[in-house]
Amino acid sequence: MSRSGPQYALLAGSGFHAFAEDAVSHEVSTRYGDPSSAVRELSYGDHTVYLIARHGDEIGIPAHRVNYRANMQALKSCGTERVVALNTVGIVSARQYPGQLAVPDQLIDYTHGRDHSIHDGESDSLEHVDFTEPFCPDLRRAILQAADDADVECHDGGVYAVTQGPRLETTAEVNRLERDGADYVGMTAMPEASLARELGMRYACFSLIVNYAAGRGEKAIHEDIEASTMTAKMQAMKVLREFFQQQS
Questions:
Q1: pTM for the structure as a whole
Q2: How many CA atoms lie within 13 Å of 108's alpha carbon, on the beta-carbon side?
Q3: Fewest Cβ atoms nearer than 10 Å: which of 74, 137, 156, 185?
Q4: Minimal CA–CA distance to 233: which of 48, 81, 10?
């Protein structure tokens, strides 16, 4: 399929494991190893959009074991210029509720032990990338505009706290995240965001709010997630259709 405009890709989280089961697949290997899944091709009108299932096709790869460098390098090697990262998050602040969508504008990284950079002294030369704005402002605005045009409520901004996983947080840890200024908590925005910056790709998170963080809700967390994920997913799919329709 011919391409017009920049090449887009999606990184799909656990709420989208069956997103592209029947799509054309390409097995891609990188100097960092194999990505979490094959690179699949989705069709949105005249656009071919690449997709990687972040946690693998069987959703068996926990956040701290994802080969983020391989995923991002695989997309880069396919010509990707802009990445929309779909992920599920919990609410730390009280301004949102499960089932809604958000496009964060900042992050705090609490992860450890992950391969955070291509600049490791072995495979690439050293560069200290500017990370003042971890998410591409233009890409964020485009997602928010698509949400508005699709008549889907989507929260603009907020701080994404990236925790290590795979366990969920304690109430005391969530209290600390709130004191630090976090609005959402998830496990996958880092090092995806910084690797995208190092590789010269624009990157933004499109977050599905699926639960209240520990100590914030009245339901058990997994009950919250089960009740809210499908609602948020259907809204996100509507926004994505509008988003790619608007791209040239």
A1: 0.91
A2: 14
A3: 137
A4: 10
CATH class, 8-246 region: alpha beta
Return all residues near 85 (Cβ < 8 A) that are at least 6 apart.
Answer: 10, 11, 13, 188, 189, 192, 193, 203, 204, 205, 206
How many whole angstroms separate alpha carbon 100 and alpha carbon 84? Answer: 17
Pairing type for strands 106-109 and 159-162 reads parallel
pLDDT digits (tens, 9 = 90+) for 154-204: 999 999 999 999 999 999 999 999 999 999 999 999 999 999 999 999 999
Bridge partners of 12? Answer: 53
Residue 231, Ramachandran bin (φ over 0: left; ψ between -120 and 50: alpha; else beta): alpha
**C-beta contacts of 14-20 below 8 A and 24+ residues apart:** 14/54, 14/55, 14/59, 14/88, 15/86, 15/88, 15/208, 15/210, 15/229, 15/232, 15/233, 16/53, 16/86, 16/233, 17/53, 17/55, 17/57, 17/58, 17/59, 19/51, 19/53, 20/51, 20/53
